[in-house]
Q: What sequence folds into this?
């Protein structure tokens, strides 16, 4: 088999990152390289042509998923003509929905990757990227009158993430939807 073009190699890398992004959020970063490559439609050997190690992929996927959050938040602001409160309310509505709870693969990396990032060694690029992403997400969630990254944004983010994690862990019981509703009410009752 001949060498792939640079364009095809870039497409293959993008496909692996996109697939890993979904699988890591759904199953955790312990997904094997073989399973990841199979899901990507590529050979196991092709992985090492694209990435120095699985850790390098985890670093890249972490950055990729937080870039997705930033793009979604910017799109939300644009959709609501820069009205921060309306964009935040739409995010809260979507975040605390049954659809988000049931779709971890496309869901929030803050909730999905927290345990894996916490278990990883300090000094890893993924941990630094995760911390920056959490701070940026909290800044987006901060009340308009607050300073970016204020406690208000952090409290909102903690409520969102905690509710999502607990709701997923109790899925199948009535408590799951009660958790989503309680968090939603706590975050929106002043609206």
A:
């Amino acid at each position: 088999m001949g060498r792939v073009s640079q364009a095809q190699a870039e497409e293959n890398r993008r496909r692996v990152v996109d697939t890993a992004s979904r699988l890591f959020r759904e199953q955790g970063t312990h997904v094997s390289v073989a399973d990841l490559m199979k899901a990507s439609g590529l050979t196991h050997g092709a992985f090492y042509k694209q990435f120095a190690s699985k850790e390098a992929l985890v670093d890249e996927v972490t950055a990729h998923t937080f870039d997705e959050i930033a793009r979604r938040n910017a799109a939300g602001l644009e959709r609501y003509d820069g009205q921060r409160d309306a964009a935040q309310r739409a995010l809260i509505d979507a975040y605390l929905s049954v659809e988000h709870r049931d779709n971890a693969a496309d869901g929030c990396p803050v909730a999905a990757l927290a345990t894996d990032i916490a278990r990883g060694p300090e000094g890893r690029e993924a941990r630094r990227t995760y911390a920056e992403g959490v701070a940026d997400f909290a800044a987006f969630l901060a009340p308009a009158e607050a300073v970016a990254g204020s406690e208000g944004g952090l409290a909102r983010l903690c409520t969102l993430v905690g509710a999502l994690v607990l709701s997923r862990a109790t899925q199948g019981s009535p408590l799951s939807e009660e958790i989503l509703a309680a968090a939603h009410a706590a975050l929106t009752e002043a609206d």
In short: The chain has a mean pLDDT of 93.
